[in-house]
Amino acid sequence: MTRAVVETIESVEHELGRYTGRSLPRTEDRRLLKGQGQFVDDTWMFRQGYVHFLRSPHAHANIRRIDTSKADALPGVYATMTAAEMAERCEPFFRIAPDPAARIVEYPLALKARYEGDAVAMVMAETRELARSAAELIEVEYEPLPAVVDAVEAADPRSPVLHEEVGSNLAWQGIYDYGDIDWALENADHVVRIERLHFHRFSSTPLECQGALVNWDLGTGQVEIVSNIQFPMFASQVMGPSLGVRQDQLLWRYQDSGGGFGNKIAMYPQVAALALISRKAGRPAKWTEYRSENLLSCGMGNERTFLDIEVPVMADGTILGFKLRAFDDAGAYLHYEPLGAVIWSQVTPGCYRFKHVHVDYTETMTNKCPTVPNRGYSRLQHLWMIERIVDTVARRLDFDPVQLRKQNYVQPEDYPYETPNGCVYDSGDLPGALDKALSLIDYDGARELQKRGSAGKRIGIGIGSTLDSGTNNFGQARIINPDLPFSGNGEAATVKLDLYGEIYCTLGTSPTGQGHETTAAQVIADILRVEPGDVRVNAGFNKEHSAYVGFSGTYASQFAVTGINAAIGAARRLRAEIIKVGAAVLGCEEADIVLDGGVASYRGDSERAIPLIGIANVVYANNAVLPPEIADSVSLNCRYVYRPPFQVPDPETKRGNLTLTYAIQVHACVIELDEETGQVRILQYGAVDDCGRRINPQIVEGQVHGATGHGIAAALHEAFNYSPEGQLLNANFYDYRVATALDIPELKTDHIESPSPFTPNGAKGMGEGGGAPLATICSAIQDALGPDAPLVSDSHNSSERVWRLLRGQESSHVDVSSR
Amino acid sequence: MLLRSLEYERPTSTQAAVEALRSSRRARALAGGQSLINVLKHRLAECDLLVDISRLEELRSIDVAVDGSVRIGAAVTYDELDNSASLRGAHPKLAEVAGGIADQQVRCRGTIGGNACYSDPASNFPPLLVALDAKMEILGADGLRSVSAEEFFHGPFDTAVRPGELLIAIHVPARGELGVGYSTVTVADADSWALARACAALKVNGTISGARVVVSALAGAPVRLPELEERLSGLEASPEAIREACANLGAGLAAVSDVHASAEYRREMAAVVVRRAIVEATER
Amino acid sequence: MAGAHAIKVTINGERYERTVLAQELLVHFIRDTLGLRGTHIGCDTGNCGACTVRCDGRLIKSCMMLAVQADGCELTTVEGLAPPEAELTPLQQAFNTEHAVQCGYCTPGMVLAASYLLERNPDPSEHEIRRALKGNICRCTGYQNIVRAVRAAASGEVEVGV
Amino acid sequence: MRADGSLSVQASREVMWSRLSDPRELERALPAVEEVEVSDEDSFSVLVAPSTALGETPLWVDVQVAERREGEHVRLVCRGRGGEYDAELALEISLDGDGDADGCEVRWSAEASFNGILSALGQRVLPAILASQVEGVLRAAAS
After folding, report:
1. Rounded CA gap, A308 and A306, in Å?
2. What is the mean pLDDT of residues A421-447?
3. For an interface test with A, which of C99, C115, C158 has the most A Cβ atoms less than 10 Å from its Cβ?
4. The model scores a pTM over 0.95
5. Residues spanned by the domain of D98
6. Does C160 fall in a domain?
C-alpha cells in the first residue's frame, strides 16, 4: 500500500484544553432567545425600495416581448428592469465550466426562461405589496418550448437545448478511472450488476429564506450589501468583474443568518440584480425571498442517476470496486456547478478499501431549478450509492451486512490511507464506530424483534456509513477545468487587544448557526489564558474588517479547521506581541514572561506584572514609554491566514489530495413497516460521529442531530417533484413536506475522537454529515422488505413507493454472475 | 406573499354579516382565516370584502342538549372543541378530531365552520359530519335553512352555502348507541396531509346496524358508501367479517393523482382506512 | 383612505393606536409598523411557525391573521417574555443550556409555543412536547435538543451558565 | 390533467349549440364571464372569474374554436393568464340527442395544464374544480 505524504503539521493541541473540548453554552443564544437577533430582513436603510422578481411560469420559453410600461406608470414604483437592460449594464458572469459550457452567457435576469421560476424582470417599489402588484402588470409574451427534466434524456442530442450558445445540454463530461476495473471484473468470483440507482432532489430549506439589502452609493461608488449569502467571497469574485466594481467597493456584511446548509451559496445573480436596480433608482434595494420563491428558485441539491453499475466481489467478500455511469442533473444554470462533478471524488471509494473504480460522469442541464450545494454536497449522492452497493452485495451473495462492512472498511491501522485517486483519509476507526452504532440501537434485540414479527408489520434494520470530507482543496476545480486559477484553501482571522484590555476577534467566516462566536472564543481563551467571556467574537462576515481571503465563507465542513486555526494563529501572534511588550515593560526576557489570567508577569514573581489593560495602554496611548524597536513592531491587532497543506492535483490523471479531513458517520436504525400502507416508522436511531478533536462537544452533537434530521426527512418525506413539462409540483410548504417534531424520532448519539494528524488542533470539519441517514433508512427498508423483494433503488421512499416495493414492483434490476 | 387590497368589516350580528356578504359578489366570510388568508396571500383568489364573523357570540358556543345532541357554532375553534368537557362527554370523536388538526396555532384560530365551508378534500371534519348525519344551519336573506351534511359538501371549496349566505351552526344528533371510527393515511406524521380518510358510525348489538360509512380525501367531496353500508347491515362485528365486507372496495372510487400519491394508491388506502374505521367503530 | 382602519392593540403591555390597511398581515404590522423584529417570517403557507405570537392568550401564527383582526386584542411577542435587559426566563435558559438554539430563526416562535404548552401542561411527555411544537419548524436541530430543553424546563432542572 | 363528464340539460340541442358557439350568447348566459372581445367567428377573448368559497379567480382567456361540427361537436383551445400563473385548456363538447326540444345530453372532456403557482398549489383540487366549473357553464348555457 502506498503511504501518503502530507506536509508535517505543527500541532497546537497542547496549547488548548482548558476551555477547548468543553460544552460551553453558546454566547450567541441570548440575543436569539430574546428576539434581539438581527437577520437580513430586520435590516433597513433610509429611502429603501422593495424588490419583487417576476418569475417565469413556464419551464422553457422564449420571451417574444416584454413590456414594463404599465408597471413603470404606477405611482410608487421606483424602477423596473428587464434582462435586456441588465445586458447593457453589466458583463456576463464568469464560468467555472470548461468549453462548451463556458460559452453560456448569463446575466442577473434571464433573456430566455429556462426553468419555472427563472427571473425575467424585476420591480422596485415603495412597498412590498406594490412591488408585487406592479410585477403583475409587466406584460410578457412567452413562446413555450418543449422542456427536458431528466438528466439522462438531457444528454441525448435530440433533446431540447437550454443554452443555444453551448449547442447541447452538457455541463461537463469525463471519465474517472483508477486501478484496473476491467481486470477486477474479469477476475472476480462474482459480479453484481445493478441496472439503476437514483438519488433524488431535495433541499435543506433553511428557515430564513434568502435576502439582501443592497445600496449602490453613487457618491463613493461603494456597493454596500447586507446579505445572508454563505460564501460572500465567491460572490465577490463573480460580481466584481460582472458589475465593473473594485473588490474594495463590494462591502458585504450581516449579523445573523437563519440557516444555510449550502443552499445560500449561489445568491450572486440576485444580489447583482439588486445592485443594478439600486444604481438605476438611486435607492437601496431590499429583497426578501418568499418561501414559494425559495422553493422554486433558491437552489436544490444535486439529483443523480447511476446506470449500469458493476461490482466485482471475491468469494471471501472482498469488494474490489465498481464501474458505473453517473448522470448528474445540474438544473438550468451552472451557478456553482460543475464543481459537483469533481467534489464527489473526495470520497471515491467511500469508507471502503476499494481499489478499482471507473466512473463515466456526465453532468447535464435540465429545465429545473439550478442546483446548489446541499448538506453533503455531491458526496452524499455517491456515498449513498456505495452503501446501496454494499447492502446489495450482502443480500445477493448472502453475506452478513455487518461483517461485510467491517471486512471492507478502511481499517484503523491503515491511516493515513491513500485512496485510489490520491486523497488521504486522515484518521478514524470505522469498525469501532459501527459497533457503537449497533449498540445504540440494540442490534441483537432488534434482530430478535424482527424474527418474532407482528401481524401486518415488518421490522427492518439498516446501516449507513459515510464520510464528511472537510476543507476542500480548491485545486480540484482544475480537474474540471485546468484553466481555473484556484488551488488550496484557507481562512483569515484577526485577534486584537483593544484600548482597555478587551480581546476582540473578527472572522472571515459566515456562520449560519454553528456557534462560531462561542467556539472561536474557547480556543482564543486557551491561547491567551483568559476566560472565554473576556473574548468577543464578531458575528457574521464583514468585509470591512479585512479578515478574509478568497475562500472566506462558511461551507464544506471546514470552520473547525480553517476558521478555528486562523483564530488560533492570530491569537498566537497577539500572544507573542503581548509577551514582547510585557518583557519590555517589565524589563526581562520574553522567555520569562508568563501570561495567565489577563496578566503578563515575570516568572516566579507575581508582583512584577502588568495586566492586559496596561499592555494595551502603552501601545495605544502611552507609546513614548516603549523602546522604539518594540513600539514599531507591535500593533496588538494581529491577522493570520491559515493555509492547509495542499498541492495542486493533476488534471490529467485526476489524482491529488482533494480534502484535508475526513469525519466519519456510522448510523444504524430499526424501522417498522406497515404492510398495508407502506408507512415507515423509526423505532430506534443511532448516530456515531468521529470528527477528531471536538472544540465544543455539545455543538458537535447539535450538528449531528441537524444533519441526521435532514437526512431522515429526505429519505422519507422531502423530495422535489417536477411534472414532465417542468412544473415544480411542490413549490410550497404544504406540499414540500419538511420534517416536524413528530417526524424525527429520538436520536441516540455516540462518538469516537480520532484526532486529525493534518490539522493543528486535531479537529475535522463535520457540519454536513455524509447523508448517512439516506443510506441507513434505505438499508432498513430493504431489510424489512425481506429476501426476495425488489431493490430499493431510490433515495426517497414515500409510503407509496414502499407499498409498491412490498407488492414486488421492481424499478431496477439486479443480476449476479458467478464464476 | 401579500394580499391584494380589499375591504374589511366586522359586523355585530349574523344578520348584519349576511347583509355585508350580500353587498358584493366577491365578499367572503372570514373567521379563523387559516385557509382563506393563505389563498389570498398567494393571490390565487380575490375577495373585495372580508366579513369578519370570528367574534360573533351567536357563532361561538357549543351547546349540548339534554338528549345528548350538540349544536356547535360555526366560529368555534378547533382548540375550543378539543378542550370542551361537555363535547368530550357527548361526542368524543368531534373533540378528538378537532385536537388532531394541523397544529396548536392553527387549532387556536381555525374554526369548524371554515373547515366545513371550504370543503377541502383533505379536511378533517367533512367525513365525520356526514357520518354523524349532521345538519348544517345556513342563514341567508330569506332566513334560516337546514341542509344535511351529506348534501352540504359539493366539492373542493364548494358547498351548499350560496353567495350571500352564512353557515351559522352545525347540529349533530345524539350519539346514543353509535360507535364512531375514524382513520386516515397521511403523508407523514399523524396530523399531516390526508391521502385517504374514512369515518364510520354504526351500532353493534351482536351484529352491525345503521352503519354510515364515508370516505374522503380521494378527490372531491366526501363519499358515502351505501353498498358497503348495506353489506354491513346484520353483519357479525368481527374484524374478519369486516375485512371480507370491505374487499375490493377501492376499485370503484374516484381519486386524484398528485405529488403525494397516485390515484391507485389513494384507492387502495381508502379500502384500508374504511376497514380500520369500521373496526374501530365496532370497538366502542 | 379606502380599506384603512384605526386599531388599538396592546403589545407586550404597551398600548398602540395605529391605522392599518385591511389587507395588512399582523406579522407585518408587528415587524414593520412596531419594529418588533423578533417575530420572524419563514414561509407563506402558515406551516413554519416562525411568526408565532400570543393573541389574547392563545397561540397563533401572525402570518395568518390580519392586523385589523387584532383590534382590541392583547398580544405578546418574544420581546414580551421578559424586559430587554432582563435575564433569560427559565425556559429560555433551558434552551441555552441544552443547546436548543442553532441559527435562532425559529427560536422566538419555538419558545412561545413551548411556553404555551407548559402553561397548559406543566409536566408534558416527550410525545406531548413534540405534538405541541409540531407547528414550529426547525431546520437545524432535528428537534432533539429543543425537546430536551422543554423537558428540562418542565422539570425545573435548568443549570444556569457553564 | 384530464377531466370529463356528461350531463343532461333542459335545453334542445339547437339551443345549446347556438349558445355554445356564439361568444355574445356566452357572455349573456354565463355568470362568470365579465367581458368578451370577439376577434372573429372562431376566436375571442373573455375575462372570466370562476367563483369558489375562497373568492374569485379572474383569468383573461383567449379562446380559439379549433374544430366545429355544426350542431354536435365543438373543440375549444383556451389559453388563460392570471396573476402569477397561466393555464391551457382543450375542451371538447359533444351534444347528443334526437332533436328533442326538452333536452339533450352533453358530453365533455377537458385536457388542462397549469403553469406557475397553480401547478403546485392547485393540483390536488383542480380536476374537481375544473369539472364543476365546466358543468356550471354548461348548465348556465342551457338555462
Report:
1. 7
2. 98
3. C99
4. yes
5. 13-66+80-142
6. no
**Do C134 and B104 meet the contact criterion of CB atoms below 8 Å apart?**
yes
First to last CA, chain B: 46
* Domains, chain B, with CATH or none: 1-53+61-176 (3.30.465.10), 179-282 (3.30.390.50)
Which pLDDT does position A552 carry in this prediction?
A: 94
Tens of pLDDT, residue by residue over A280-316, are 999 999 999 999 999 999 999 999 999 999 999 999 9
Residue C98 sits in the same domain as residue C147: yes
C161 is a domain residue: no
Q: What is the pLDDT of residues A505-564, one digit of tens each?
A: 999 999 999 999 999 999 999 999 999 999 999 988 999 998 999 999 999 999 999 999
pLDDT at A263: 96
* Three-state DSSP state, A157: coil
Distance CA B182, CA B278 (A): 8
Is the confidence at residue C31, as pLDDT, over 80?
yes
Cell numbers 430499526 label which residue?
A670
Q: Give the pLDDT score at D121.
A: 85
| C106, C136 contact by CB (below 8 A) | yes
* Nearest by CB: C66 against B8, B103, B189: B8
- Interface test with chain D among A723, A732, A737, by most D beta carbons within 10 Å: A723
Q: Please report, for chain D, how many H helices and E strands are present, in that order.
A: 4, 9
Amino acid at B62: I
What pLDDT, on a 0 to 100 scale, did the predictor assign at position D19?
83
- Indicate which CATH number applies to the domain containing C118: 1.10.150.120
H helix intervals, A529-644: 564-586, 612-620, 628-631
- Tell me whether residue A2 is in a domain: no
CB-side neighbour CA atoms (13 Å) of A334: 30
At A612, list the grid cell.
492586559
What span, in angstroms and rounded, lies between the C-alpha atoms of A473 and A427? Answer: 18
- Note down the domain range covering C124: 90-155
Chains with ≥3 CB–CB distances under 8 Å to A: B, C, D
- What is the distance between the terminal CA atoms of chain A, rounded to a whole angstrom? 28
Chain D: touching chains (3 or more CB pairs < 8 Å): A, B
Assess whether A653 and A750 both reside in one domain.
yes
Question: Of all residues in chain A, what percent carry a pLDDT higher than 70?
Answer: 99
The residue ranking higher by pLDDT, C30 or D135, is C30
What are the grid coordinates assigned to A615, written together? 499592555
pLDDT of residue B1: 61
3-state SS, residue D20: helix
Residue type, D47: L
Asked if B187 has any chain D CB less than 8 Å from its own CB, the reply is no
Average pLDDT, chain A: 96
Question: A727 vs D84: CB contact, 8 Å cut-off?
Answer: no
pLDDT at A1: 41
| Contact call for residues A764 and A683 (beta carbons, < 8 A) | no
Q: E strand or H helix at C27, and its extent? A: helix C26-28
Spell out the residues 6+ positions from residue A88 whose beta carbon is closer than 8 angstroms to its own: none
Q: Are strands A457-472 and D33-40 parallel, antiparallel or unpaired?
A: unpaired
Q: Is residue D113 assigned to a domain?
A: yes
Q: What is the pLDDT of residue A311?
A: 98
- Best A52, A202, A676, A809 member to test B by mutation, with max B CBs in 10 Å, is A676
Nearest CA in chain A to B42: A292
Q: How far is residue C143's CA from residue A171's CA, in Å, rounded to a whole number?
A: 38
A22 has a chain B CB within 8 A of its CB: no
List of residues 6+ apart from B26 with CB closer than 8 A: B46, B47, B48, B49, D55, D56
Residue-wise pLDDT for A67-112, tens only, equals 999 999 999 999 999 999 999 999 999 999 999 999 999 999 999 9
Residues A775 and A674 in one domain: yes
What's the rounded Cα separation, in Å, for the pair C49 and A740? 11
Q: Can you give the residue range of the structural domain that contains A241?
A: 40-145+204-297
Domains identified in chain D, total number: 1
